[in-house]
Amino acid sequence: MLDKGAKTLILTTLAAGGVSFTVSALVIVGVCHVIHRSEAVPSLIEFYTSESCINCPVAENMLDKVLDHDSVPGVKPVFLEFHVEYGNKPGRKDPYASLHNLIRQGDYALSSGKESVYTPQIIVDGSSLPMGSGPDAVLEAMKRAVDRPKLPIHVQLEQPQENQVTAHLKVADVVPPDAEIWLATVEDGVPNRALKFDKRGPETHRGVVRNLQMVKLTQVHDHERLGSITIPLKPAWNRENLRLVVFAQETAPGPILALGQCDRIP
């Protein structure tokens, strides 16, 4: 199991005035209110994949079609693509794979009493779909999000250095105190390096998780809890294609309680 707390950098910031954050001697670069709108309830889709996986291109194409259309009225899909490294083969190493992605997938397996992981795997709002699920199963899982509205999260960004941003989060205290708050740095339009081996996949990947960090909420203020975290921005990442996804999740991991995204990093 991942010692998640050990991987989190906490920067505590006091809140003033109940709504806005006051940060002295630093430049605020953007405010992103990560909340659900009444006409569109967000639904988190996690896709565990590998560029060396034989069946993953078909599953990725299927998910692209689901995401490219307004498939479920009233639901806004938020997509995260986790590349895992256990699918690597000689001469075919997935450049986007991470051990931390495997650990997260492993936590899902353990929480459901399973001892193995596989690709492709699709998880919607914290619940794994059966192996080999098609678009109908994904759409049915997304429809259930309408009956499970997510709680609001607010995010304010600042840039203390060129190669990083700091996110200040504000979450309503109705989110259980033992819930995990995650912030994913996500890149769209990432080149599909596997095309030279398998032509079935898309030209680019969407929603590739470049970094996943747990945010510790450290204060209570006016029925809200606050937390801050520094996000590294590596030169190899295309900043214009980066976005942030923030979500609260029951431990185990379990259901998604709050969800939203900043469409860009200023």
Summarize the structure.
The chain has helices at residues 56-68, 99-111, 135-143, and strands at 28-32, 41-49, 75-83, 121-124, 127-128, 153-161, 164-172, 180-187, 190-191, 204-205, 208-215, 219-221, 224-232, 242-249, 256-262. With 266 residues, it is mostly beta strands.
Inertia-based shape: globular
Radius of gyration based on Cα positions: 18 Å
Biggest beta sheet summary: 5 strands, antiparallel
Tell me the strand percentage band.
35-45%
The number of strands is: 15
Query: How do the strands line up in the largest sheet?
Result: 1-6-7-13-12
Contiguous uncertain segments of 5+ residues: 1-27
Broad structural category: mainly beta
> How far apart are the termini?
34 Å
| pLDDT averaged residue by residue | 84
Total helical elements: 3
Task: Outline the structure in words.
The protein has 266 residues and is mainly β. The chain has one domain (4-262). The protein is built from three helices and 15 strands. The strands form four sheets. Strands 1-6-7-13-12 form a five-stranded antiparallel sheet, with no helix packed on it. A four-stranded mixed sheet has the order 3-2-4-5, sandwiched between helices. Residues 1-27 have low confidence and may be disordered.
